[in-house]
Amino acid sequence: MLNVAVIGSGTMGNGIAHVFAQHGFPVTLIDLNQTALDKAWTTIGKNLDRQVAKGGLSEDAKNATLGRLQRSTSLADGVRDADLVVEAATENVSIKLDLFRQLDELTKASCILATNTSSISITRIAAATQRPDKIIGMHFMNPVPVMKLVEVIRGYATSDEVTKQVMDLSRQLEKVPTEVNDYPGFVANRILMPMINEAIITLHEGVAGVEEIDTVMKLGMAHPMGPLQLADFIGLDVCLAILNVLYDGLGNQKYAACPLLVNMVTAGRLGAKSGEGFYSWTPGSKELVVAPRFRK
């Protein structure tokens, strides 16, 4: 597998492109928005500089990584020579289905089409193509250059050969691939999102405050960050979308999103990316400040 195309230049997309390029793969990062591509390029450069400063990467290796990266605002041009496409676009079913229909037509027949979706059915995505055996999930964790896990999700028709290729490829990226089957939420979010939702319910019912809930989980359960801080980091809109996938797919009331979460998303309080969620987020500041709405 030689040429890689990554679709979507947001947080996940630029991180995935970074990791592939760092490990020797020619990568084309694709986004229809040139401004987003330019921002992603700056982010990758800063992250590589950080690795150099920490001694994890040489200056020569950094330059070689950047030399293996290309940018494109054309989907057709960007995927034409790809052996693997990793889609990291918006977590929206209709967008992904439309994109995979296009990819099926634009890529060579041998190309593996992977999605970084955190919850949407691989089988459903595969059904939009004529190559369901070559459709697979590669769910990277954020931040991609740091986090070791890759959930490798097999759709109903994903072949053994493609699964093995993607597992081996993940190891080449110095990641730890974990093979899971295609059910709503896979493993990571089927366990994580109900925990986050329960933390929001605990806050909503007045059991404890934001800081107190997160402190209990950090100090009592050895979590590196509390569930409410993590929800802000993920994006409350993303959390809600995944809970809705779980609820719709499994039909169990325990996956129903807390009304407080629904209201916050409706009000545009999406967490770190909007500047406010359960905490207030100031660019460049590492201080954790509870949002005014939740201060006692």
From TrEMBL:
A GO MF term: 3-hydroxybutyryl-CoA dehydrogenase activity
Residues holding NAD(+): 8-13, 31, 91, 96, 118, 142, 273
EC number: 1.1.1.157
Domain 3-hydroxyacyl-CoA dehydrogenase NAD binding: 3-182
Pfam families, per the entry: 3HCDH, 3HCDH_N
Single biological process term from Gene Ontology: fatty acid metabolic process
Site location (Important for catalytic activity): 139
Domain of life: Bacteria
SUPFAM superfamilies, A to Z: 6-phosphogluconate dehydrogenase C-terminal domain-like (SSF48179), NAD(P)-binding Rossmann-fold domains (SSF51735)
UniProt keyword list: NAD, Oxidoreductase
Segments forming domain 3-hydroxyacyl-CoA dehydrogenase C-terminal: 185-281
Family: Belongs to the 3-hydroxyacyl-CoA dehydrogenase family.
The protein, known as: 3-hydroxybutyryl-CoA dehydrogenase
